């Protein structure tokens, strides 16, 4: 859905039209982070198996930090003069990805699916950083800090999926379902 996101005012040193483009970039990051927060909580509630407690407890700090990231992005949108549209309807209608598809499942299956989710979020964040860097270094800096944390979370997830030789069990899986199936074989 295309919206004119050009604000009536913005921060000093940025043209309103450029701020509108940046608000659009940040709006998609807000959706991605809100979606990730809910997906992580879903995994937290629906993980089972012998690795349950380790994964259950690993996920909660990620949930909290991703919620803080979403808040920071929303506040940056507002500072730029935009509207931080954080409603579920806006997220669902504007996102370019499908809902998380794994229900109650073994911990390793969920982690394998989460690896695919994190890959999508990290790739989207990198693209947003590239766009933000053309317009505003302060926003770029915010996103770079978040990227480091997201990559660390993906590393935590991948540590459960990697063998001693450095190969990920999920290999080239491109969907959550395919990754979860491969992960379930490990569990």
Task: Put the structure in a nutshell.
The chain has 187 residues and is mainly alpha-helical.
Summarize the helices and strands and which ones pair or pack.
Layout: H1 16-46, E1 47-48, H2 52-79, H3 88-94, E2 105-106, H4 107-135, H5 137-159, H6 176-186
Parallel strand pairs: 1-2
Helix pairs in contact: 1-2, 1-3, 1-4, 2-5, 4-5, 4-6
Name its key features.
187 residues, mainly alpha, two-stranded parallel sheet, elongated
What does this structure look like?
Residues 26-163 form the Ferritin/DPS domain. This is DNA starvation/stationary phase protection protein Dps. Belongs to the Dps family. One of its GO terms (molecular function) is oxidoreductase activity, acting on metal ions. With 187 residues, this protein is mainly alpha-helical. Helices cover 69% and strands 2% of the residues. It has helices at residues 16-46, 52-79, 88-94, 107-135, 137-159, 176-186, and strands at residues 47-48, 105-106. A two-stranded parallel sheet has the order 1-2. The longest helix is centred in the N-terminal third of the chain and has 31 residues, at 16-46.
